[in-house]
Amino acid sequence: MTQIDFYTHVDDKLKTACQLVGKAFERNLRVAVLTPDSQTTQAVDRLLWTQPAISFIPHCRADNPCLPETPVVVDHVSAPLPHDDVLINLCAERPEHFSRFQRLIEIVSRDEQDKFAARARFKFYRERGYEIRTHDLSR
After folding, report:
1. Of 98, 96, 80, 109, residue with least CA distance to 7
2. What phi and psi, each to the nearest 5 degrees, are found at residue 100?
């Protein structure tokens, strides 16, 4: 069953996503970052070129021919992916195929609208019997 982690009270969702991608990459895990739109996809792409500052995390879009060899994919298109390690959701909606991943990461900002949407996703997962861990980043 998919392990689900909610990271809450986040000041910068994109920066936090890049930090979590970096940790997963260090553990040789493959990561998909699902973004809500092309603008956010581009912003995460730019951040991954600079975060962390001393290294580079190889990444591409879902339609890139290098996808099978690339450990991180960032896209707003929920296309079939060749891996199932970690999915980071930056969207307000629940990812359609989250259950095929070993781990789902939900990142929740301090914004009230974002928290409201996250509560609905949390409730959906909990009602289906998923064990959910929460990590309060305000501390």
Report:
1. 109
2. -85, -10
